[in-house]
Specification:
4-stranded parallel sheet; 15 helices; alpha/beta; binds iron/sulfur cluster
Length: 304
């Protein structure tokens, strides 16, 4: 049978390689559509840990592929574009954290999953935005917490739980592009819509929201809500997932500028090339993976 298009070619290779394709909710629509699993960081981490296929193609950014490789070290993990990094994860280096922790020697280190494997290896526990509140609440009350790298998520956790934390001054450039004036304009254009915002947004935007939640929590909230229209304050790839999940409802971006260029580096052609060539592979040095695994395992055990 002739192979006619890129999706057919990917499907043929996926079968031949015994591969599964995982895609983050911020991926391009066509990438989400071809994936076996679409989810947020926590869901992808859990599914990677349980994956039985020999090959995982991780359509997301580099730390997500590293997380899969750490949690399931027997598997081959491919990332279709090795340049798909996360600027927030790059805002904390092992050297910088070591110096920072020298000032906080007794601190319990909670790392957002948006960090490199080296930083995870220096952490007591990881979290995603889906389970961050519960992770922080799990830390003994008498311990100082250093939270990194997202100051906005850290601020939201402290505001919600009352737990003071020492924050690293990192941020997501994509979420910081969601400015209050853009949100006001979207609200004026769609006064009937509910405003749902991710806690990676600046506090001034989070304070305006009707609902604050992680990617998966926003998806669940919009699907289950009686409301018919929503303004979405997070990366705009989620709109594709939302429209598939709740086709009868309307979704508007708070701003179309919330488009992560790293997430969008992944394209169908690159998935095909990755499966064809079995690269780029993401390999975490065993001694780093060993130390990072404990913090990640503790993360996936705490539900969102
Ligand atoms: S949306 Fe932000 S946090 Fe997510 S990968 Fe892009 S830069 Fe990193």
């Amino acid at each position: 049978m002739p192979v006619e298009n890129i999706e057919d070619r990917i499907n043929a290779l996926r079968k031949e390689r015994g591969a599964v394709i995982f895609a983050h909710n911020y991926q391009r629509g066509e990438v989400q559509d071809i994936a076996d699993v679409v989810g947020d960081s926590l869901e992808l981490a859990r599914r990677a840990r349980e994956a039985e296929a020999g090959v995982i193609v991780l359509c997301g950014v580099h730390f997500m592929a590293q997380t899969a490789a750490i949690l399931n070290p027997q598997k081959t993990v491919l990332i279709p574009d090795v340049n798909a990094g996360c600027p927030m994860a790059c805002m904390v280096s092992a050297k910088g954290l070591k110096e920072f922790l020298a000032e906080h020697p007794e601190a319990y280190v909670v790392s957002y999953v948006n960090t490199t494997a080296e930083i995870k290896a220096m952490s007591d526990i990881c979290c995603t935005s889906a389970n961050a509140l519960k992770v922080v609440e799990s830390v003994p009350a008498d311990r100082e917490i250093v939270f990194l790298p997202d100051r906005n998520l850290g601020h939201y956790i402290t505001k919600t739980t009352g737990r003071e934390m020492t924050l690293w001054e990192g941020f997501c450039p994509t979420h910081e592009r969601i400015l209050p004036e853009f949100v006001e304009a979207a609200r004026s254009a769609h006064p009937e819509a509910e405003l749902c915002v991710h806690p990676e947004c600046a506090p001034s935007v989070v304070d305006m929201a009707d609902f604050v939640g992680s990617t998966s929590q926003i998806l669940r909230h919009c699907a289950e809500s009686d409301r018919e229209s929503f303004i979405i304050g997070t990366e705009i790839g989620i709109l594709h997932t939302l429209r598939k999940l709740a086709p009868g409802k309307e979704f508007f971006p708070a701003t179309k500028l919330a488009d992560c260029p790293d997430m969008k580096l992944i394209a169908l052609e690159k998935i095909f090339w990755a499966l064809r060539d079995m690269e780029p592979r993401v390999v975490v040095p065993p001694e780093v993976a060993e130390r990072a695994r404990g913090a990640l395992e503790r993360m996936v055990e705490i539900t969102g």
